[in-house]
C-alpha cells in the first residue's frame, strides 16, 4: 500500500517498536507501585515524559499523559466552569466539536464559532468580535487537518490575554512536523497532541499544561499523573511515544528534511492538478501557509467517496478529511465553511505525506490516480 493518509496516522518507526517491545518485556510492572520493579517502570515513563517535554520546549512536569488526543481535548474543555462561553472554529477536530455539542446540550456552556476566510484560515476579526467577558476559553487548532492551513494561534492568544480568557490549541497536526518551542512568546494555557501523528504509537495522548500549571478536569478521575488523569499508565505506549519524540526532534533539527518533504508534496500536487481540467487546491498555497505534509485537491465532477474506494482497491490510501469524522456522508466542515460550494467540497480528496514518503511512492500514486480518474466521467 502507498500511504498518502499520514494526517490520519503514521507508521511506527523501528526504534519506536523496539522501545514498546522493550517495555512490554522489561517494564511490565505497574509504575505506581512502590516496589523496585514498579519504580523501574516509572523511570521508563519519566524518561519518555522528558523526551516529549524536550520536543515542545517545556519542563517535564507540564506533560500529562492520556489515552489519546481526543481525551486530552475533552479534559481541557471540561475544565471550563459552567455558565460561560467557549469559542471554537469550523476546522476543529471531531473530539472538540462533539464534546462541545454535548456540553451545550447539558446546559454547561454556550458555544460560539468563529469564521474562516476563503482559504480555511480563521478570521481573527471574527474571534475579536465574539470574545466578550463571558468567554472563558478559546480553542483553535494550530493547523487544519483537512488542508494543512496554519492558523493564527499567536494573534488569537494575544486577544485572549487582553480579555482574560483561557487559550487552548490542538497541535496534533503540528507537533513533530514543524518545530514547537513554548519557551518564547507563544504560551498557551493548554496544548494537546498525539504521538501517532509523528511515527509513534496509538493509545497515548499528551496534554501540555501552561506555565501557571492550570490543572485540567480529568475525564478519568484518579491519583495517577498527580491527580490530573486517572488510570494505570500505558508504559509500553509511553515508551514508544518518547522514542518517537526523540526521533522527531532529531529530524526537525535539520531544516532540509522539511524542505525536501515539502518539495515532494509540491511535486505530487503539481502532477495531480494536471490530471483533470479545473482541478484546484483547497487552502492557502503561499510559502509557509500550510504544513509541508498536506494537499487537498478538488477534482471537478468526481465524487470523493467513489474515488477513494477506487484508490484503495488499487493500493493507495487517501481520505476526504479527518479519520475521526470519516463515517459522515457530508463534506468536511473545514471545507464547506470557507464558502465553497457543496459540489467542490464533495469532490475534494486529501493527500498527506509523512517523513517516510518517497519519490517512488509519489510517482506510482500519480499513475494510479490518473488511471482512476480515467474511469470517472
CATH superfamily of the largest domain: Type I PLP-dependent aspartate aminotransferase-like (Major domain)
Q: Can you name the CATH architecture of the largest domain? A: 3-Layer(aba) Sandwich
**Number of H- or I-type helical stretches:** 12
Percentage of helical residues? Answer: 25-40%
Mean pLDDT: 95
| H-E string | EHHEHEHEHEHEEEHHEEHEHHEH
- What CATH first level of the largest domain would be assigned? Alpha Beta
What does the radius of gyration come to?
Answer: 21 Å
The order of strands across the largest sheet is 2-8-7-6-5-3-4
Domain count, please report it: 2
Describe, in plain words, how this protein is organized in 3D:
This protein has 377 residues and is α/β, with parallel strands linked by helices. It folds into two domains: 14-251, Aspartate Aminotransferase, domain 2 (3-Layer(aba) Sandwich); 255-373, Aspartate Aminotransferase, domain 1. The protein is 38% helix and 13% strand. The chain has twelve helices and twelve strands. Strands 2-8-7-6-5-3-4 form a seven-stranded mixed β-sheet, sandwiched between helices. Strands 9-10-12 form a three-stranded antiparallel β-sheet. A two-stranded parallel ribbon has the order 1-11. Strand 3 (85-88), helix 4 and strand 4 (110-113) form a beta-alpha-beta unit. The longest helix has 21 residues, at 36-56. It is globular and about 65 Å long. 49% of the residues are buried. The model has no long low-confidence stretch (mean pLDDT 95).
